[in-house]
């Protein structure tokens, strides 16, 4: 016997219709008869806290140009010119005053990570 109800309801795409209840750090994946919330790009599954941000900077999975530094952000990361360097018209970090290059505070302060202190 033809199951009309199953045929009618088989292919509801909750993701496309935005009726899913995935969190902002999750990506909706449509499944037959339902959907699944998976960690979005830039996040990974954490046993205790759901999808957590990946720190690309500490994992060395970032790609920043020369003379720039990596700053972790929620769901991604950003590159900012290191101290003494400025972004030129070619979007490269060039410096004519690289005097405070090492050990200084960056031009941007990372919003979430407290600097590690020796004590
Ligand atoms: Ca990140």
Describe the structure.
This protein is mainly beta. It folds into two domains: 4-52, Laminin; 54-100, Laminin. It is built from three helices and eight strands, in the order H-H-E-E-E-E-H-E-E-E-E. Strands 1-2 form a two-stranded antiparallel ribbon. Strands 3-4 form a two-stranded antiparallel ribbon. It has a two-stranded antiparallel sheet with strand order 5-6. Strand 1 and strand 2 form a beta hairpin. It is elongated and about 65 Å long. The model is unreliable at 109-114 (pLDDT under 50). Residues 42, 53-56, 72-73, 75-77 line the site of calcium ion.
Main attributes?
mainly beta; two-stranded antiparallel sheet; binds calcium ion; about 120 residues; Laminin; 8 strands
Order of helices and strands: HHEEEEHEEEE
Mean pLDDT: 82
Structural class: mainly beta
Question: Gyration radius, to the nearest Å?
Answer: 22 Å
Strand content: 25-35%
- Which strand order does the major sheet show? 1-2
N- and C-termini, Cα separation: 74 Å
Question: Which CATH architecture of the largest domain is right?
Answer: Ribbon
CATH superfamily of the largest domain: Laminin
């Amino acid at each position: 016997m033809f199951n009309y109800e199953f045929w009618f309801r088989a292919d509801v795409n909750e993701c496309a219709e935005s009726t899913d209840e995935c969190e902002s750090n999750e990506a909706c994946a449509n499944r037959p008869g339902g959907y699944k919330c998976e960690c979005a790009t830039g996040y990974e599954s954490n046993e205790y806290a759901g999808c957590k941000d990946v720190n690309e900077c500490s994992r060395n999975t970032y790609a920043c140009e020369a003379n720039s530094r990596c700053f972790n952000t929620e769901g991604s990361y950003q590159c900012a010119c290191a101290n003494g360097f400025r972004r030129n018209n070619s979007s490269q970090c060039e410096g004519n005053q690289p005097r405070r290059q090492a050990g200084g505070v960056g031009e941007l302060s990372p919003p979430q990570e407290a600097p590690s202190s020796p004590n």
